[in-house]
Amino acid sequence: MKRKIGSVCLVCVLALVLTFTFSLTAQAKELKMALGDAAGGTQWALGKKFTELLEKNTNGKLTAHLFPNGQLGSEQETVQNCRLGTLDLSVVAINNVTPFSKTVGLFTLPYMILSLQDGFILTQGPIGQQLVKNTIRDAGVRIIAWAYSGFRVLTNSKKPVRTVADLKGLVIRVPKNALMIGTYKSWGINPTPMAWDETFTALQQKVVDGQDNPYITNYVMKFYEVQKYITNIRYLFSLEPLLISEGLFQRQSPEIQQAILNAGKEASIYSMNYIVEKEGAIKKALVEKGMEILDPADNEKEFIEKATKQVWPKFYKDVGGKDKIEAALKAVGREFPF
């Protein structure tokens, strides 16, 4: 009788262990996603939509938790951590990918992208696909989605800016990116390279006078509290790729990999529509907060000529050659400007 009772107990214990193990494996694996910007911006919108689609496409096997406002480190740190496999996902400004994969700098050449449509065509077409492969090869991370955040308009706290000459005397913060630094130098000023998480305080304390970022970023980061003027320059359309650790991606089954890619593609389309819907209201809100919006003189002609002629030739090698620039221009229906 004792032996029989013992056998029954053993069966019960095994059943409980198996049930507990099954319940653990049935739970969704929660990935960590870093965001440089605050909640409410395009990084957040892309991340939330991707998470929703990821959970749906994987039948609950994968989901993600968002960490906005640089909680998991600076954007370049999160790229490095994805590369090392200590972080799963990160949404970053594209200029923070170029130190790890130089050819992605093609999309940060000044005035390469002149519209949202240009940005979508280039990122979703053959050129974008090649840059994704290059980034996997060079950086060990895979671009699986794109946030389309709009042009990086110039803000400052001192004076209206309409011409290149108006920039004189202003101290402008830029990311630690050679292309962006070179662009401002082509306009006759030496910008101040500065980490993103230091920018608001530097503006507040008048260490720098201005910076550039898309309208939505200026709004969610509350730059209207420390900036007065906006100039609608279009030198750089802000693309913010969602990166996944390539090691993590390769550990997934083919079905899960495809589910991740499908979620990324759909989230990218959502991001494009999101900025179209939101930007007009954001401009209005910034004006209501006391900011003044200005257009550059002469359709930005002087800004464009100086930046393209002086900056592009210096980066032919980095972006893969002059022929890569010509191919990108051809894809959006334009010709080489000089």
Q: What is the CA–CA distance across the termini?
A: 95 Å
What is the residue-mean pLDDT, rounded to a whole number? 92
- Helix fraction, binned, reads 40-55%
Question: What is Rg?
Answer: 23 Å
Named CATH topology: D-Maltodextrin-Binding Protein, domain 2
Total strands: the figure is: 11
Specify the CATH architecture: 3-Layer(aba) Sandwich
Strand content: 15-25%
What letter string, H or E per element, gives the SSE order? HEHEHEHHEEEHEHEHEEHHEHH
Strands ordered across the widest β-sheet: 2-1-3-10-4
Major sheet attributes: 5 strands, mixed
Q: What is the structural class?
A: alpha/beta
The stretches of 5 or more residues where confidence is low (pLDDT under 50) are: 7-26
CATH class: Alpha Beta
Identify the CATH homologous superfamily: Bacterial extracellular solute-binding protein, family 7
| Form type | globular
SS field, number of helical segments: 12
Total number of distinct structural domains? 1
Tell me what the structure shows:
There is one protein chain. With 338 residues, the protein is α/β, with parallel strands linked by helices. The chain has a single domain, classed as 3-Layer(aba) Sandwich (D-Maltodextrin-Binding Protein, domain 2), CATH 3.40.190.170. Helices cover 46% and strands 16% of the residues. The chain is built from twelve helices and eleven strands. A five-stranded mixed β-sheet has the order 2-1-3-10-4, with helices on both faces. It has a four-stranded mixed β-sheet with strand order 8-5-9-11. Helix 2 packs antiparallel against helix 10 (254-288), helix 4 (116-124) packs across helix 5 and helix 6 packs across helix 11. The protein is globular.
